[in-house]
Amino acid sequence: MVPALSVELPEAYILAKQMNSELKGKEAAKCKLQNCTNYQRLGFVNTYLSDFNRLHTRKIEGASSRGNTIRVKFDGDMNLLLAPEYGGITLYHPQGSIPPKKYTLKLEFTDESALTVSLTGMGLIKALTDPELQDNYLYHRDFSSTASPLDLDFTFKRFSTDLNRKNTNLKTALVGKEAAVVGLGNAAFQDIIYRAALHPKHKTGELNEAELKALYEAVKNVVEDRIKSGGKEQFVDFYGNQGTYVAAMGPNMKDQPCKRCGQGIAKISFGGGQVYLCPACQK
To answer: Which domain does 161 fall in, by range?
Structure first.
């Protein structure tokens, strides 16, 4: 199996939709943890197995996502919160199938099916009560009033208003905890500004209406295209299917010709990471 890359909004949406369809009504029977000592030390996984055992005998009411975070709601006041945003594989194992030997969490159900979550980078796996959920940083970050490209009210007016309030560079405005939208990481950001033909150092308050509209459409289209493609390449969905979305910009593309103009792709250090762009198209 190809290792999963970071899980951003489109991939979290795909997983949550599949989990909601497959797991609703299933009753939890047993939880197992392994290979998670470092994650527990960092606070990304519950410290004790007994925290996960609180899911036992509870039934799943549904699964939803917002931003990069997935909430699996159980009856009573229990939740399983998943955010494998820096690398993780979440898989379903029907009755009679053999789950992988290596995983971070395995949740077995009374019908002998199972769910496994394997973190391959930094991420979150936590069993939380409703009150505990309210104190979780990632839940508050993503299940918040900040706009999501998948919201019904994600209009151009709202996007442009929120963006202008930031008055900062495009990367800070679109990626990170202070962003005007939730769920966009560096991978999505690079494709978005490439489609909008904008440089990452542009200040949001200096964009004209045409540039704002191009950026708005790029945000929506990148997210929609990744969902329709089953996620980006190397993403593995709930059933083990690999995504087919090919990024326009990203690692290993330096000096490759731009598909739009033929200019060699450049790599710059910006905003705490690397950004690939076309120096001719994105000014």
So the answer is: 156-230+246-277
